[in-house]
Amino acid sequence: MNTLTQENQVSMDGSLQDDHNHDDGHHAPPSGIMRWLLTTNHKDIGTLYLWFSFIMFLTGGLMAMVIRAELFQPGLQLVDPNFFNQMTTVHGLVMVFGAVMPAFTGLANWMIPMMIGAPDMALPRMNNWSFWILPFAFIILLSSLFMEGGGPNFGWTFYAPLSTEYSPDSTALFVFSIHIMGISSIMGAINVIVTVINMRAPGMTWMKLPLFAWTWLITAFLLIAVMPVLAGAVTMVLTDKYFGTSFFEAAGGGDPVMFQHIFWFFGHPEVYIMILPSFGIMSAIIPTFSRKKLFGYSSMVYATASIAILSFLVWAHHMFTTGMPVFAELFFMYCTMLISVPTGVKIFNWVATMWKGSLTFETPMLFAISFLVLFTIGGFSGLMLAITPADFQYHDTYFVVAHFHYVLVTGAIFTIMAAVYYWIPKWTGHMYNERLGKLHFWCSVISVNILFFPMHFLGLAGMPRRIPDYAIQFADVNQIVSIGGFAFGLSQLIFLVVVIKCIRGGEKAPAKPWEGAEGLEWEIPSPAPYHSFTTPPVIK
Amino acid sequence: MFGFGFALVPLYDVLCDQLGINGKTQNSASQYIDNEIDKSRLITVEFISQVQNNMPWEFIPQVNRLQVHPGELVRTHFKAKNLSNLNIVGQAIPSVSPGRGAAYFNKTECFCFNQQTLAAKSSADLPLIFYVDPALPDNISTLTLSYTLYNITDKGYVDVLEQGAAK
Asked: Which of A155, A244, A464, A492 registers the highest number of CB atoms within 10 A of its CB?
């Protein structure tokens, strides 16, 4: 903090090099790779997180391509079933812990300090560490795929005894990589909490806080609450497999069903960790392109908090078929349905924001609107799954796969893309190519529906998930799904092109490239200088 | 919260125990109370047995299904045979379905209370004596008792070889 305030004199639009020349009392700043390895700057770390997340998105995407290629036809063509299982497992782990969560942390790093008028994150060195342990976690996880016996093949939910009794020898590596990811997430969450609580500009009261900061603050509390539970679960798996304990082994007096309770006690808040920041992004983009103030700001805050609290009371809806007593099934069914109330409040608020607004449809807005529609579809299929008797039919079928891909791909990932398009002028100082951006949007939104919508019907017709082969009557629909999958995968290369072109050049972006945008981040020039808000702004 | 993850283990056991919801039965012999036998009700008790993968034992119930009156003391047995050339220690883990009924299924004697040792190629009848509590809720008319047999020879229980073999 001290050094940063000493740099007040640095002109806002000074280039990176200028800033470093003023780094009085310090040795010369490292350059090349060391700049990135040693950086404690929230913008650098945000960039690192976002690139890491994109690389992981493509890695996990490649695994999805293997899955869809194998499922293009019934029978076994390309890969053996064990490798197929490794693909579904590692695809899930990479997308959840490698793509979606780091992307949100990257956005938080870039945007939260600029949104609340802070010079940096509160704990910059920890910030550096929380990023740099992540690549090692994924090197450990991915390297296990190349080992004798293969990588994790028990599904990303690693149910015991699949992950204990029947798992490959490399399971210890899976466990350690999850530990590292957990530590990284917790450090990122601590940083967000400390920053938002302590470093808001004078005058920024809680109810003036931008919703992205609000939703991330609540997400951070969820992370701190449940990531250690996940760490506990993997540790029990580790000791069950290698050290002869019997937490989940019936032979030693343990209980495999208890694994599912512990896992989903983490797992359900986890799905809100992956969607609450999206709600914050939506609440920034929709008002901008509607040129209206967000409808119902305070109800958005309360709805987010209610969702977070309810998320701890619904975990067993993943386990309706484990033979719970009827009372428990009803309790978890009603609690789950209750979550649709605050979520509905949000959806209605966004629609009300758009109502009678003067809308324009730039790429961020297109992604935001498609989120609104497609996430709602995912929400409705979630409601269907929440109905206990109906869940007995849907459980472990492609209906579930369709549901969670609607909420995670067209939910979380679409808003991450919307956020990148929305804020990239601020990051690079250039406008992205709007035509390419729209092309990316339309290719994505069409292919993603070809990919995931027919899965609902496959699931209702009884196709089980996590299988490399299927009954012949599912062949046609699977072919359509696979074609949609390949198209969606290829469409993301357009995104890569747009981002690289935007970094290299393009139309110069003004400080506030969007007419209707509001917020402190638009008051600093584009590209945002290396150090911003070294003097806190005053909020009226 | 890391500690909480582990604290969930005893918490879960206590909860399941108190509510009798996960099909676990008593781990020790219960005392037979000379209840009035409720002749008006007939409960079907089904027996299922399974052997853990790679365990070279045959393990089957003597009868698959019994009709019993609540309160009546019933004796049956399971046949176990060691098909291998090695002494093997087994542990049977019972589970009752529906889980709600587990608390009403009382065993006064069960091979599952101890480890069972079978010498190579030998066989044994493993006894089970039980009664169904007359307080069994009216909506339960069938109880399924499932035993899964686990090979625990390598788990350091070899010292009980003699003790178990007596059965």
From this structure: A492
